[in-house]
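fyi for ur records
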Amino acid sequence: MAYRVKAVFHIGVHIRDLALLEQIQLFFGVGTISKLGAESVQFRVSGFENLKVIMDHFDKYPLLTNKQSDYLLFKQVVNDMEQGRHLTVEGLNKIMSIKAVMNNKGMSDSLNLALPDIEPILRPDIKDRNIKSLHWLAGFTDAEGCFFIALKKSPESKLGETVWLRFILTQHVRDEEFLKSLISTLNCGRYIPKSGYGEFIVEKFTDVFDKVIPIFEKFKLHGVKSKNYEDFKKAALLIKNKQHLTREGLDQIKKIKGSMNKNSPRVFF
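which gave:
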């Protein structure tokens, strides 16, 4: 057969989050970490025994977004490969049908040209999207969240500028219902549809200060995102104490803003 199949789980982050990947590698006890280009590093797991460690974890702690569909499809491929089914034409075609619907990517143009008769399968439907623990939300925020300080010109303001805070979680448009469910789960925020994706946003200051910040005080973030959160919290305290209404306080918030939100991790099966 002309194609070789390999199942790989990987997490890619900016090199500043290398320590986070090292913690993940230590936790699982499998996988390797390698540098990708000048600014990225990747935690990578392959091989049936090593992948079983990863799959056991996600079987015990299921994903809640459409990434769970990707995981279930990935698990199906690994199980088929372990049985040697990928070595048959029928088995390879099945794997290609699965690949065609994974990770919002599908097959490459070259594969589509070489295998024009491949029919994408239906993705598994994820019914349970309820957050069981705010530890999960903290981990999800490490990967998909953003703590943002917004500034804009305001003729009505004494200083000519106004500042507000935003907590944002972003997902592909397929996870619209999940993001909307966070409104009731956290009792705050709103959903904003974008082109191809959507955002759950909390920007009312009392909600940010009284509902969002207490979550991450109890359920800790890791890596660079934790530093962004600490800066976000500093800005929130300045606003709470009305320091943003002074030139010195506003300049301090601007300085904080300049050091935040550089890069986020990405997870792939």
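The longest helix spans residues 223-240. thats all i got for now
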